[in-house]
Design goal:
Blueprint: H1 3-7, H2 12-21, E1 32-33, H3 68-88, H4 92-96, H5 103-118, E2 121-124, E3 127-137, E4 142-151, E5 154-157, E6 163-166, E7 169-181, E8 184-193
Antiparallel strand pairs: 1-3, 2-5, 3-4, 4-7, 5-6, 7-8
Keywords: Signal
InterPro entries: DUF6318
Protein name: DUF6318 family protein
């Protein structure tokens, strides 16, 4: 994906493929809608599309709320933190809502560190949370947040100034599995399909 990144063994494209096709290990028994699922769950992400920089210095951490809204807020925060990580190379906000077993989460963090080491900047190419379709829970300790996401076109600017166009992604279904742990929702997995 990135010319210099290919030379240094950086596999940014892997994360894009992972987001398009992967899942972290997860599974659950019969599901039911979390009882307090009400209100508007389609608030936009913090950062405006196409700016190449976060609208806020750092995404505001979600309030730890053991509800459907709390889970939806964590998914919103996850995508804000994802964009923020690529904009600033700071993966701490993303990691703060990710469980250790989430392979997509750890691959994004590794990718960001490799991009930073290569001196590459990603402009645009931000994830967009279109809407949250439903929140389904099994037992109050785990939920599945079904949403639609897309990614805008972008460009990778290498340390030498060369640029590589980064195609966006058409809207697709996203499933985030979260676990309530230590008083907060944490992301177990993110899986997407066209």
């Amino acid at each position: 994906m990135f010319a210099k990144a290919r030379n240094t063994g950086l596999a940014v494209a892997t994360v894009l493929v992972v987001l398009g096709l992967s899942a972290c290990a997860s599974g659950s028994a019969s599901h039911q809608v979390v009882p307090d699922f009400t209100g508007d769950l389609t608030r936009p992400l913090d950062a405006p599309a196409g700016t190449g920089a976060p609208a806020n210095p750092k995404p505001a951490a979600p309030v730890a709320e053991h509800t459907a809204h709390g889970a939806a807020d964590v998914v919103r925060y996850f995508w804000n933190a994802y964009n923020y990580a690529y904009d600033t190379y700071d993966t701490a906000p993303l990691e703060s809502v990710s469980r250790p077993g989430c392979s997509v989460c750890s691959e994004v963090s590794s990718d960001v560190r490799l991009i930073q080491a290569a001196g590459t900047q990603v402009r645009g190419h931000r994830m967009q949370l279109i809407d949250i379709d439903q929140i389904v829970g099994a037992d109050g300790t785990s939920v599945r947040v079904e949403a639609r996401i897309s990614r805008e076109d972008g460009v990778a600017v290498e340390a030498d100034g060369s640029q590589t166009e980064l195609p966006g992604l058409d809207p697709r279904h996203s499933t985030a599995t979260l676990t309530w742990e230590d008083g907060a929702w944490k992301v177990d997995s993110i899986r997407t399909s066209a």
